[in-house]
Design goal:
By secondary structure, this protein is α/β, with parallel strands linked by helices. The protein has one domain: Rossmann fold (3-Layer(aba) Sandwich), CATH 3.40.50. The chain is built from ten helices and seven strands. A seven-stranded parallel sheet has the order 3-2-1-4-5-6-7, with helices on both faces. Helix 1 links the parallel strand 1 and strand 2. The radius of gyration is 18 Å and the shape is globular.
């Protein structure tokens, strides 16, 4: 499929982000690949479809950085029609009593302010054009909580409130904004977990396995399509049924 639409993917060189970018490029999008410079440097020459993509250093927590990156995408491709907010921090672990306020602010800056910055920089032009798509990656932790990750849980829950505010303001102007809530997804970081911890996590998933980054990308790509025009303000679990309680007996039978 070929069309003239342009998307921005943040965290584009991470496990999920690269899958998002690859899927959109395969679907005919042109894509701005936003990530930190060290992630871009690590990719080296291995940048997906350089003729139709543009890799740009961007710290999403920094508003001037985001402004400049979005301007660079517009200069190269002429427009921005969609955003996938994939950048995020997941390893800031501490109890509430021991959480450093600076690290709390840093995590909220990336996970919550980052998507806000991208929306602020792109949604007005989408509204003027009468068409736009925004997909943000939240987490199951937004609704269930995690011990020792107060900033992560708070930031991912905040994305749901941000989504509702954006839909209320822009939903009648052709923009849809939906949020994906992944569970255990087989990113390199997850696959690098100690085997006994990973096995224990998988036991709680009715599907009996982690999700794949390609499954995440397929969901995001659908939400960016014309076919998803009436899906707006949705929080979609991608967790293999993890949010459905199952008994120990059911687990034993499944084994």
């Amino acid at each position: 499929m070929s069309h003239d639409r342009v998307a921005i993917v943040t965290g584009a060189f991470g496990g999920m982000g690269r899958a998002f970018a690859s899927r959109l490029l395969a679907d005919g999008w042109r894509v701005g690949l936003l990530d930190l410079q060290r992630a871009i440097d690590a990719a080296g020459a291995d940048i997906p479809d350089p003729a139709r993509s543009l890799a740009i250093h961007c710290d999403v927590a920094d508003w001037p950085n985001v402004e400049a990156a979005v301007a660079a995408v517009r200069e190269r491709f002429g427009r921005v029609d969609a955003v996938i907010n994939g950048a995020g921090i997941v390893d800031n672990v501490a109890s509430i009593a021991k959480m450093d306020p600076g690290r709390w602010a840093w995590e909220l800056g990336v996970n919550l302010s980052g998507p806000f910055h991208l929306i602020k920089a792109t949604a007005p032009a989408m509204a003027e054009a009468g068409w736009g798509r925004i997909v943000t990656i939240s987490s199951q932790a937004a609704t269930t909580g995690l011990r020792y990750q107060p900033a992560y849980c708070a930031s991912k829950a905040g994305l749901l409130g941000l989504m509702r505010a954006v839909v209320a303001e822009y939903g009648h102007k052709g923009i849809t904004y939906n949020t994906l809530l992944p569970g255990l997804i087989a990113t390199p970081k997850v696959l690098g977990m100690p085997s006994e911890i990973l096995e224990r996590a998988v036991e709680s998933i009715p599907a009996g396995r982690p999700g794949s980054v390609e499954e995440m990308a397929a969901a995001a790509a659908f939400l960016l399509s014309d076919a998803a025009a009436f899906i707006n303000g949705a929080s979609i679990d991608i967790a293999g049924g993890r949010n459905v309680p199952i008994s120990d007996l059911t687990r034993q039978k499944r084994k």
